[in-house]
Design a protein that fits this description.
The chain is of the alpha/beta class. It has two domains: 4-10 and 257-353, Aspartate Aminotransferase, domain 1 (Alpha-Beta Complex), CATH 3.90.1150; 15-254, Aspartate Aminotransferase, domain 2. Helices cover 43% and strands 17% of the residues. It is built from 13 helices and 15 strands. It has helices at 15-20, 31-47, 61-72, 84-95, 113-122, 143-150, 173-176, 202-209, 220-230, 239-255, 257-278, 303-312, 339-353; strands spanning 4-5, 53-58, 76-81, 99-104, 127-131, 133-134, 139-140, 157-161, 180-184, 195-200, 280-281, 292-296, 315-316, 318-319, 328-332. Strands 2-10-9-8-5-3-4 form a seven-stranded mixed beta sheet, with helices on both faces. Strands 11-12-15-14 form a four-stranded antiparallel beta sheet, with helices on one face. A two-stranded parallel ribbon has the order 1-13. Helix 7 links the parallel strand 8 and strand 9 (180-184). Helix 2 (31-47) packs parallel to helix 10, helix 5 (113-122) packs parallel to helix 6 (143-150) and helix 11 (257-278) runs parallel beside helix 13 (339-353). Bound molecules: pyridoxal-5'-phosphate. The site of pyridoxal-5'-phosphate has 12 residues, from helix 3.
């Protein structure tokens, strides 16, 4: 039996979107691919109301996190860390031989603009990394306020991981001045894994011209040039996934981005009210994610047993991540899930746990 996924990625993929992948193959140097890919890029920009350069890489989101570092940082980068994925960005920066400093906060907490400002006043950084939605802790960073602060520092690029928020939460890429916005197909896009979706500002592209060690596969200037000249990708893309993405973007347009955000807020509200009544939330109050809820396991339930029982009923939720694996569990409410589906999984959890 298929288990409906309430895990924070991969998320449920509608049958018609899965089916869109099953088409006779085309060549990635054919006109039909150029039409497909340029169409996707235009739809992405339209939905997110941005003129920034948009790209879809055949890779998972982590590749774009690395691309952001390799293309935008010669030496000094400030990484805000408060969970597994923000810590990953810090590790990537160090692995790329950059001088990375961290604002290292406890998991569950979140970075505030004044913490970043203190660092920017003390040292000249080329870029700051912020994870918008920490999937490991269910925390949402105050990206609007952080973006406002960054306007005072026009030489410092703002690199934002929206892997588990873009197309669910509200992310005004261009209005906020996000220089590189990174996302993955398997979260709020409600697609199979395998694509990294990114938006790159002119400022970031300009900066990349003076950065050495951009590498080959993730060189954003080469990727931009290839797109400008041919409307294609420099290397062979996951064409089947592109068909699914193209169709899913049409579905998102039909739903409307504001409605999509509203639906995510309603699902989050429902799960978080339930969690507060029966357990409590891991996230710092006021900074709860709208796409995933991380719950303190105050009742010391066996999450593995709960998931086994849920599995028999056709659902899957998620245990905690990394060092909080045993202390928390997570219910994702992202992608194409509906409030009714969320109510159904919660009702089943109530029955199993006799809450
Ligand atoms: C916030 C966040 N950033 C980055 C990643 C890594 O994305 P990917 O697995 O697509 O490389 C994830 C994956 O769960 C994530 O949740």
């Amino acid at each position: 039996m298929h288990k409906k996924l309430f895990i924070p990625g991969p998320t449920e993929v509608r049958k018609e979107i899965l089916d869109a992948q099953a088409q006779p193959m085309i060549g990635h140097r054919m006109k039909s691919f150029t039409e497909l890919y340029t169409g996707i890029i235009n739809k992405l920009k339209e939905l997110l109301e941005t003129k920034n350069f948009a790209t879809v890489l055949t890779a998972s989101g982590t590749a774009l996190m690395e691309a952001a570092i390799r293309n935008c940082v010669n030496k000094d980068v400030l990484c805000c860390t408060y969970g597994a994925f923000s810590e990953r960005w810090f590790k990537i920066a160090k692995a790329c031989d950059k001088n990375a400093d961290a604002i290292a906060l406890d998991w569950g907490k979140v970075v505030k603009p004044e913490m970043i400002e203190e660092k920017l006043k003390a040292k000249k950084y080329e870029a700051v990394t912020v994870v918008h939605n920490e999937t490991s802790t269910g925390v949402r960073a105050p990206i609007e306020q952080i973006a406002e602060l960054m306007k005072k520092y026009p030489d410092v690029l703002l690199l934002v991981d929206t892997v588990s928020s873009l197309m669910g939460d509200k992310v005004e890429v261009e209005k906020l001045g996000i220089d590189i916005c990174v996302s993955s197909s398997q979260k709020c896009f409600a697609l199979p894994p395998g694509l990294a979706i990114g938006f790159v500002s002119d400022r970031a592209l300009k900066k990349a011209e003076g950065v050495s060690g951009k590498g080959h596969y993730l060189n954003l200037l080469d990727i931009r040039d290839y797109f400008d000249k041919k409307g294609q990708t420099p290397t062979t893309p996951a064409i089947s996934l592109m068909w699914a993405l193209d169709k899913q973007l049409d579905k998102m347009k039909a739903e409307g981005m504001a409605n999509r955000y509203k639906r995510h807020c309603e699902m989050a509200q429902y799960v978080q009210n339930w969690a507060k009544k029966n357990f409590n939330l891991y996230a710092e109050p006021g900074y709860e994610s709208v796409t995933v809820t991380c719950i303190n396991n105050t009742k010391k339930i066996s999450v593995a047993d709960l998931n086994t029982e849920l599995g028999k009923r056709g659902f899957a939720i998620s245990n905690g991540y990394g060092k909080i694996k045993e202390l928390t569990f997570r219910i994702a409410h992202m992608g194409d899930l509906t409030l009714d589906e969320v109510k159904e999984v919660i009702k089943n959890i109530d029955e199993i746990l006799k809450l």
